[in-house]
């Protein structure tokens, strides 16, 4: 890895930690809080691409597992990986990878492409992994966990819109456009 890539991974892991400083909104009927860190997942996948985005989220989760209180509300340690929100946490690197991969396949990237991928792949993938795991951890039916999670949809749509605008603008910045172009050309040369 180049020093620039390592720096970008570290910076976006720090962005996730900074988003964790915003206090969570706890709801009385579900143990999974509303946080801004979903915005970070959508942002990192779109800006860094598949490989670096997933790596950044993995580094962030390893720091959390090591005990750093980087999750919203100052949560950290291995105990968060045995709670109801573990599925959502595990989905972060996978989601960042999928978003980055799909965006790298679009030649003429427009804001609506980013928004569509963030809404369909990003939010949906987080839910597809998080909700069944939450149901398992809480020992409730999956349908009940789906109903509990419906309250998150408006906020996640808003986060997807904000992340899409930021991704679209940041990808035009020379730092990120060159980084994404070089990682894409490396993939092509490795396939030949």
Give a topology summary.
Blueprint: H1 3-19, E1 25-27, E2 30-34, H2 37-48, H3 50-65, H4 86-104, H5 111-138, H6 142-149, H7 153-170, H8 174-191
Antiparallel strand pairs: 1-2
Q: Please summarize the sheet with the most strands.
A: 2 strands, antiparallel
Tell me the number of helical segments per DSSP (H or I, 4 or more residues long).
8
Mean pLDDT: 90
Give the C-alpha Rg.
16 Å
Shape: globular
> Uncertain segments of ≥5 residues (pLDDT<50)?
none
Question: What portion of the residues fall into strands of 2 or more residues?
Answer: under 5%
Helix content: over 70%
Q: In which order are the strands of the major sheet placed?
A: 1-2
3D structure, described in words:
The protein is 71% helix and 4% strand. The chain has helices spanning 3-19, 37-48, 50-65, 86-104, 111-138, 142-149, 153-170, 174-191; strands at residues 25-27, 30-34. Helix 2 (37-48) runs antiparallel to helix 3 (50-65).
Please provide a brief summary of the model.
The chain is built from 8 helices and 2 strands, in the order H-E-E-H-H-H-H-H-H-H.
Q: What labels would you give this structure?
A:
single chain, 192 residues, mainly alpha, two-stranded antiparallel ribbon, 8 helices
């Amino acid at each position: 890895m180049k020093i620039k890539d390592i720096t970008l991974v570290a910076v976006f892991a720090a962005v996730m930690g900074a988003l964790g400083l915003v206090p969570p909104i706890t709801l009385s009927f579900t143990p999974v809080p509303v946080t801004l860190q979903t915005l970070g997942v959508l942002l990192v996948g779109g800006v860094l691409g598949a490989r670096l985005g997933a790596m950044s989220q993995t580094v962030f989760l390893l720091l959390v597992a090591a005990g750093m209180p980087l999750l919203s509300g100052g949560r950290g340690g291995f105990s968060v990986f045995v709670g109801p929100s573990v599925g959502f946490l595990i989905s972060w690197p996978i989601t960042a990878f999928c978003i980055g991969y799909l965006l790298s396949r679009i030649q003429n990237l427009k804001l609506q492409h980013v928004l569509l991928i963030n809404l369909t792949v990003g939010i949906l993938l987080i839910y597809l992994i998080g909700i069944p795991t939450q149901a398992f951890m809480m020992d409730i039916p999956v349908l009940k966990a789906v109903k509990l999670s419906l309250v998150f949809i408006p906020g996640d749509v808003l986060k997807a819109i904000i992340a899409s605008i930021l991704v679209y603008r940041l990808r035009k910045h020379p730092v990120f456009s060159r980084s994404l172009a070089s990682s894409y050309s490396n993939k092509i040369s490795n396939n030949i």
